[in-house]
Write a structure and sequence with these properties.
Distance between the termini: 68 Å
Family: Belongs to the sigma-70 factor family. ECF subfamily.
Organism: Paenibacillus aceris
CATH topology of the largest domain: Rna Polymerase Sigma Factor, Chain: A
CATH superfamily of the largest domain: RNA polymerase sigma factor, region 2, helix turn helix motif
Keywords: Sigma factor, Transcription, Transcription regulation
InterPro entries: RNA_pol_sigma-70-like (IPR039425), RNA_pol_sigma-70_dom (IPR014284), RNA_pol_sigma70_r2 (IPR007627), RNA_pol_sigma70_r4_t2 (IPR013249), RNA_pol_sigma_r2 (IPR013325), RNA_pol_sigma_r3/r4-like (IPR013324), WH-like_DNA-bd_sf (IPR036388)
Helix content: over 70%
Number of domains: 2
Largest sheet: none
Order of helices and strands: HHHHHHHHH
Strand content: under 5%
Protein name: RNA polymerase sigma-70 factor (ECF subfamily)
Shape: globular
CATH class of the largest domain: Mainly Alpha
């Protein structure tokens, strides 16, 4: 078996093992089922087309997540807009999906975060990646990721507190 065939088997295994996670990751960017599926499909195509660029098989998960993140960002740049879908519209389109976070206040606050903060929060807390894995996915320093997580959590805390205060008033 050639090196390429072994790499392709590893990529297939990674895709199969993390398919729900990468879909959720793409969905967190575009907020649309069909677009998220298109992004995942395009990311899979890109992964196979660039399998030779994988430097270490140990980092295959981070490598594939980076492809999904970059494909999502490319999609958003092409669209020139972010599509925001509220819970009632999402349920009307497809009741019973698991794409809705349990806490709508948190989802709203996440949507309002700048993309760089939303990315680190999604990868860390919804995809359960370690900080060094996030750094690899986003091609940033570990200290930068730590700072962004801290700043994002601070912004979320402020927004969540402000929202709760508005409800009381």
């Amino acid at each position: 078996m050639t090196i390429n065939a072994n790499l392709e088997k590893l990529v297939i295994s990674c895709i199969t093992e993390h398919k729900e996670h990468v879909y959720r990751l793409a969905y967190s960017y575009v907020k649309n089922q069909e677009d998220a599926l298109d992004i995942v499909q395009e990311a899979i195509h890109k992964a196979f087309a660039s399998v030779e660029t994988l430097k270490s098989t140990a980092s295959i998960k981070s490598w594939f997540y980076r492809i999904v993140v970059n494909t999502s960002l490319d999609f958003l740049r092409k669209q020139k807009k972010m599509q925001v879908v509220d819970e009632t519209m999402l349920e009307a389109m497809d009741p019973g999906t698991e794409d809705v976070y349990a806490n709508m206040d948190l989802e709203k606050a996440l949507d309002e975060l700048p993309a760089m903060y939303r990315s680190v929060i999604t990868l860390r807390y919804f995809e359960d990646l370690k900080i060094d894995e996030i750094a690899e996915v986003l091609n940033e320093n570990i200290s930068t990721i730590k700072t962004r997580i801290y700043q994002a959590l601070r912004l979320l805390r402020i927004r969540m507190t402000d929202d709760n205060l508005e409800e009381v008033l």
